[in-house]
Write a structure and sequence with these properties.
By secondary structure, the chain is an all-alpha fold. It has one domain: Formate dehydrogenase/DMSO reductase domain (Formate dehydrogenase/DMSO reductase fold, Up-down Bundle), CATH 1.20.1630. It has 13 helices and two strands. Strands 1-2 form a two-stranded antiparallel sheet. A hairpin with a 3-residue loop joins strand 1 (272-274) and strand 2 (278-279). Helix 7 runs antiparallel to helix 8. The longest helix has 32 residues, at 3-34. The two termini are 38 Å apart.
Length: 321
């Protein structure tokens, strides 16, 4: 395997993990925003308690993605920053204000007005961040130099929906682990509702791709049909598991559905990194740089992977099936 292919696989892995874990954290704020801040205090405290131990750690994956892209494929990084600086800047602002809202709300215990204010900041920022990240990915995948287009706007709403769905599934599982029947029923119902909506949105998305991103659609038709079918089957399995209250299976199936979407997109445009003409071969750094990065990742993972695994085990492990 060539070094650029290894690093591309690592880059895709980082995108997957950031979506599955960081996206679910964004989903907590999306739910508070979408319910018009009408959640009970018990529900709100549950949301903040669920993400509290891990929300900062999940941004490690975003840093991971940016460092690999900048170091291993600098022309692609430059093109993305040049054409998509507006949505990426707005996403960065959202990440900053999301963190500020979460932290300040935690320290405003007993101060109702301040808690409400920072909760609003956290929720709006948590919704805006995946929206603008999704718009950037949509613009990059469609090959258009502008980020406002039918496909990029669809991608923005789709990514927000993905975050909300993953979050609802995870929270239903955690509520069962906490033996809270009320919260389990609430998040199971929300996960089922969002899952149905996401299935409909995914089907509509194929039509949007075909009409607004014909080059990407051709890649889907030739190389990614398996991942489309896989994602759809995994999504149906997650709904069935939710219906039967098999939350561990629902978690795995929902994650698999999202992974299928990401891999389908990657395979549809490979070997192009940024449309129309920046390919992996054109964008890669010199081979010594690539190998240096690979070995740095190997040694760094010796410390990073066990640390993250231990963190999630302590705060998210030992949940019932």
């Amino acid at each position: 395997m060539l070094p650029e292919q290894i690093l591309l696989a690592v880059l895709v892995t980082g995108i997957i993990f950031y979506t599955l874990f960081g996206g679910a954290d964004f989903g907590v704020g999306v739910w508070e925003f979408s319910t018009a801040f009408q959640s009970s205090e018990k529900e709100r405290e549950y949301l903040y308690r669920a993400i509290g131990p891990v929300w900062e750690a999940n941004h490690v994956w975003l840093i991971f993605i940016l460092v690999i892209l900048f170091s291993a494929f600098p022309p692609a990084f430059a093109a993305i920053c040049r054409f998509l600086w507006v949505p990426l800047l707005l996403a960065l602002v959202g990440i900053i204000f999301r963190g500020v809202g979460f932290a300040f709300r935690s320290y405003a215990s007993g101060l109702v007005r301040q808690q409400v204010f920072w909760s609003v900041i956290f929720s709006i920022a948590s919704t805006a961040t995946p929206f603008f990240l999704g718009a950037a990915f949509g613009a990059m995948a469609s090959g258009k130099e502008k980020w406002i287009s039918p496909f990029s706007i669809f991608s923005a709403f789709f990514f927000v929906g993905v975050c909300a769905y993953l979050s609802a599934v995870y929270l239903a599982r955690e509520a069962k682990g906490d033996k809270d029947a009320g919260l389990e029923m609430l998040w199971r119902r929300r996960a089922l509702t969002m899952g149905v909506w996401m299935g409909a949105l995914a089907m509509a998305g194929l039509a949007v791709v075909a009409t607004d991103a014909p080059v990407l659609w051709e890649g889907f038709r030739k190389h990614s049909w398996f991942f489309v079918i896989f994602s759809g089957a995994a999504g149906l399995l997650s709904l069935a598991a939710l219906w039967r209250r098999k939350f561990f299976l629902a978690t795995l199936a929902s994650q698999s559905a999202v992974v299928g979407v990401i891999l389908g997109w990657i395979m549809a445009q490979y070997p192009v990194l940024v449309w129309p003409s920046i390919t992996v071969d054109m964008a890669k750094s010199p081979e010594p740089v690539l190998w240096a990065m690979i070995w740095s990742l190997v040694f760094g993972s010796i410390f990073l992977v066990p640390s993250l695994a231990w963190l999630f085990y302590l705060f998210k492990g030992r949940r019932p099936l």
